[in-house]
Structures are given as structure tokens and as C-alpha cells.
Model the fold of this input.
Amino acid sequence: DQLQTICGECKSPLVARYDLKKIQKKYSPSQLCEGRGLWRWAPLLPVRDAAYRFTLGEGDTPLLKVESIGRELGFQHIYVKDESSNPTGSFKARGLGVAVSRAVELGVHNFVIPTAGNAGGALAAYAARAHCRADVYMPADAPASNKQEVQTLGANLHLVNGLINDAARLAAEDGKKNGYFDVSTFKEPYRLEGKKTMGLELAEEFNWSLPDVIIYPTGGGTGLVGMWKAFEELEALGWIGPSRPRMVVVQADGCAPVVKAFEEGKERAELWSDAHTGAAGLRVPFPFADRLILRAVRQSRGTALSVSDDEMRTAQVDLAGKEGIFAAPEGAATLAALYKLFSNGWIDPKERVVLFNTGSGLKYLGWGNAG
Done:
């Protein structure tokens, strides 16, 4: 019942915990599956008073079977979890919807965030819904659609000459000076709770089992860590068994700090110098939750790999032309990774594989023709 940020001693992320035994006695899976949307999972989310559960219709995104590409590769069970149908066109709506709701429940009225683009739009939307102020710090070279989205939704846009880590520094300074609540990735525990609903939905969609492999585009890594947390909670509730998907981190060749740390057997990532990629959400030189990301990948017997922007463009065209899914470049990166993992034998064609498309390609118009 107290607003939380990070651990004051070790400066690491905090995560929310629940009385799972109490929830187990009170709820069954079928009870939570009766409604629609993210907030049907309310017993496993941090907002207690329903009056503060602000919504724009987020959650319950489609799980689409990838049939044409699957036939070409010899796979029978490839799926795309398509987050582009969320409000503001990306998965960021899940995390920011819950973060804003819980913070407002605890008395917050002013928010600040650094963003590569989509998180800023999501914060602006939910702050507007909650009648709060939002200040958004964004790299000046972010997609034009993201800039216009933030401004149209009524937030204060601050353009930064630099990368998201530069935006994060300025946002933190602004928050401290003005008393605004900083909803940076993993700098508070509530965004993670919204993102974990992707894992809850997957378990439900696979009839309370889990896929064999999840391929996830990783910038800050909230979604991957959130799903791993969701699986832990579902097992504690007795709703799933102990088996887990192998978690695959996908990053861009021009910005792959987690991949480098994984390949070198390290527990911490190092700041990536000269970060560059057209996939704005993957241009995160140093993820704050590097240890949590790497732990989930290793515990799951997963892997981490990078793909080039050209490989993302090819995969984006394949998903669009062969499956009708106009993915964001970050989402297309997961198909590019699947091609590599299939070619080197890491994935068996008989396995159930879920690719995450984290946003709409409509927010990156022109990217595919970039040099």
C-alpha cells in the first residue's frame, strides 16, 4: 500500500508478490476466463479498487497460426501472438495501463517516462484516461508517428539528441526535480505486472499448458521477465505444471548487449556503444533488468541471438505477404530469429513455437525502405 520504485540498497528492480494460496482457494481458471480484457486477471494484478482499473480495451490479443511459412519450413505449430491490436498499437499498453492505474490508486497525478516511442504513446493515452499529466522524453530520431501520437494525446513531449539511455537520464532528473513518478522500464514494479498478462493469456490459449519455445524481441525485457513471472505464479496456483518454454532473446546486430552477455556467460550486460538499428524498441544500450532477463533465458535452457535490420525487413515482408500480419520491425525480428534457429537445428519442427509481434507495422511506415 506504499508507492514503490526500486530497492534503495542495491538499486535493483522490485517485483510484486501475491498471496497465491488465498487466490487458489478463491478462484479457478474458469472464473478468470469468463470476462474479456486484461483486468479479468485482477486477482493477480496490483490494483485493488476497481474504480482505478483504467482501461482502453487492452489485452486478449489474438494468437494466430502461421500456416504458409510453417508449411515452407515443415512446421505444424508456429504461432504469432499479435500485440498490435492493443490500444496505441503495441504491447506497451499492457504495462502502462497497469502502472498508471496502480500509481493513481496510490495518489500519483504526474508521470514521466523515457521512451523509444511506443511506451511514450501508451503512457500519454492512459494518463489522459486517468486525467493525469505525462512528460515524455524521446530520442529526436524516433518515428514521426510516435511523436505525433504523444502530442495528440495531450502529453508534454521532450525530444532528446541521443538514445533512450540519454532520455532516461533527463527523465529521471525531471522527475526528481518536479516530484513526478518515473515509470521507466523496471524503475517501478507495476509495468511488469501488466506485461505478465501475456504469459497468463498464453497459458489459457494453450489450455493450461505452455508452448515449447517463445521467441521474444528484447529491448528492456519487461515482457520476457513478466511472462516468466506469470508461469511461476500459475504453477504455484496449480494451474500449470513445471514444464517451461525455452525463452529466446532476439536483439538487433547493432544493439545486442544481452546477446553478448549470454554468449560470454556473464550475469550482467555491458553498455553497448554506438547502438544503431531501425527497430527503435530494440535500441536499448543497457537494459536495467539485465540479470532478470539472463536468468530467465538460462533457467529455461533458452538462447539469445541477434539479427540484422535487413533480415528484419525480409521477415516483415514475409509475415505481411504470406500471413497478412503487418508486424513492427521488432516483431519481424522474431521470424528472422526463427529462420536462423531452424537452419542450425536448435528448434525441432514438431515443437510449438510462439513469436511475439509487439506492435503494428503502421507505426513504422517508411522503415522498410530505409537505407
